[in-house]
Amino acid sequence: MKRFLPLASLIFLIFFQLSCGSDEEVGSISETEDSEVAEAVEVTETDEGTYGLPILSDVTLRSMYAAEVEALAVDSELDLITVLDGTQKVRIKVKYLGKRDLSLGFPLYEFELTDALLEERGGIASGMSGSPVGPPGRVLGALAYGDNFSTAPYRFWVTAIDAMEAARDHRPLGEFMDAQAAPHVHRRLMPIKTPLVVSGVNPRRVEAVSERLKSWRFDAIDLVADVGGAPANAPPASADLEPGDMIGAAIATGDVINFTAYGTVTQVYSDGSFVAFGHPMAYGGAISLPVYRATTAGIIANLQASYKSVVKYGAPIGTLTKDLSAAVVGELGDAPAMIPVSVSYHPVNSDEPIQSESQVAYGQEWAITPVIAWTVDALRQEWTQSTSTGTLVLSFQETEETYTQRWRTVSADPFFDTYENIEYAVGEFTDPLRNAAGRATLKSVSIEITDKPQIATAEIIDVEVPDQIRRGTQMTVTVVILQHWSIAKDKARTLEKDISLNIPSDWESGGAELTVEAATIDLFDLSFDFDFNFGEVSEDQMPPKTLDELIKARQDEMPEPGTIKVTLESDENFEEVTAELILDDLVVSGEFFDFIFID
């Protein structure tokens, strides 16, 4: 079968809504579910000539629950409603093959595509996930799962509307706590993976970030690059959704990068809620993503997995509120608040920095890192070696304190240096598994990046130490540094910098170890250490108890770029004194050790 969502091309999963009948209609069907149905449900004949043609009337479907589906005759010809071109829905022929239990917590219905027209266009495609299936005027569930690398006749599996409506009523863990676990999907079937379409980014950058994001949370998602842009001749962005309509859920929007998941609506209810996909997007539980109308430019046939070419348009029409194993759930109405992200990029070839603005959905803070890194990459327009200096500022709703992180790196490709620094900073505060000090809700994120073409590296090659060192005096050491030729230009490449240490008068006489090194930090190995002295733990050894303490602790651990640190440690009692020197515009490396004697 075509590999629905896992398609390694493009398109995001479309959210689906189905215009449902009245509450009274749904209630009457629900009562039928508990009664025994002795005879097979009669499937109304549909004119053969209507398949593949636009549905010109409004689409309103009544939910068809398990008891009625159980009575369906195998090989019954049913309808699949989806969008193939623009926003126009069409009816596709499919054949019902029976009920299957694949240990997902709810049953699936197996189907086969029998419509020659759709097979010619590429068959089942990503973006169809959530398309309603059922007899004429009814919906028994949503197209949701498929097989990899299949050929015609294409088979697919449908999530029952019963399970999707149960998801609509389910209270996700996110209402009670911040972290959720994800159920496993039957290994033989693949969710028609949600395509997270990124516009404004180089496809190779998407592949690189996709590798870094691989985890259980992204098993049902494919990151794909697309040119994006406004659709041609798009109709007004009406909030009146119907079964089979396509929608886009925005993880991030901006003037450079847009990050959207696409899919199809399965059912819409009189209270303005809707269900879609028939499978999870990222098992996110309680979520908050703005929902847009979407239009498609047809199916792009692919030997591995066909996909729809889709783009969102207009203003948001609602909010996606739940991401569960059987469906995603949304509400029509106002769009949710998002986190403002400001990027200021200053290249050497511009007198003024280039400004870019984005917004990232709450609960999707992981996306801040790729959005900023992709934005800077797009503004940079080249992948060449340079010296990159960054300043990131995070502000929070819970405190007036802000967190500021600065770095300077030299790299053949600064993209990943930017990525790693932002990922560390944002994750330290917004990931509850890493932040035990206090809730940190981002109010805004801003970053300034400056690039210079010079390779601003400098290495410690020698240290000159006084011949005689006494207690109660100041010791001055001279650090000898060799600069890269590109930064030195016509100046001398060798620099000599003095650093002074104050040695206490009560310092123990005898040997001591002198260390001169570039102050660096491992972003992936920050922790709070405890001394095993079997005594009381000092206040400065305690982990942060509040958000303000966490901000201060993390900033104190981050050395200023270009810092050289000198440490003198006694061999007798391990007492130590330190001093620092900051070299502007340089990235320093290297270290020096010496054993000296103090009178």
Q: What strand order characterises the main sheet?
A: 14-15-16-19-18-17
Helix-strand makeup class: mainly beta
- Please count the helical segments: 9
Domain count, please report it: 3
The backbone outline, from C-alpha atoms, is elongated
> What helical percentage do the residues reach?
10-25%
Low-confidence stretches: 1-40, 178-188, 528-532
Q: How much β-strand is present in the residues?
A: 35-45%
What can be said about the biggest beta sheet?
Answer: 6 strands, antiparallel, barrel
Which whole number gives the mean pLDDT?
83
Total number of strands: 32
- Cα(first) to Cα(last) distance is 82 Å
Task: Please characterize this protein's 3D structure.
This protein has 9 helices and 32 strands. By secondary structure, the chain is mainly beta. The protein has 3 domains: 1-335, no CATH class; 338-452, no CATH class; 457-520 and 559-598, no CATH class. The chain has a 6-stranded antiparallel beta barrel. A 6-stranded antiparallel β-barrel has the order 3-4-5-10-9-7. Strands 27-26-25-31 form a 4-stranded mixed β-sheet. Helix 6 (368-380) runs antiparallel to helix 7 (415-430). The chain is elongated and about 100 Å long. The N and C termini lie far apart (82 Å).
Task: Indicate the topology.
Layout: E1 14-16, H1 23-33, E2 62-63, H2 66-70, E3 77-85, E4 88-100, E5 108-113, H3 116-121, E6 125-126, E7 132-134, E8 138-139, E9 141-146, E10 155-160, H4 161-169, E11 190-191, E12 194-199, H5 203-212, E13 221-226, E14 246-254, E15 258-268, E16 273-276, E17 285-300, E18 306-323, E19 328-332, E20 338-346, E21 354-361, H6 368-380, E22 386-396, E23 402-411, H7 415-430, E24 442-452, E25 457-464, E26 474-483, H8 485-488, E27 494-502, E28 510-518, H9 547-557, E29 563-570, E30 576-582, E31 587-589, E32 591-598
Parallel strand pairs: 1-15, 2-8, 6-18, 12-13, 20-24, 25-31
Antiparallel strand pairs: 3-4, 3-7, 4-5, 5-10, 7-9, 9-10, 9-11, 12-15, 14-15, 14-17, 14-21, 15-16, 16-19, 17-18, 18-19, 20-21, 22-23, 22-24, 25-26, 26-27, 28-29, 28-32, 29-30
Helix pairs in contact: 6-7
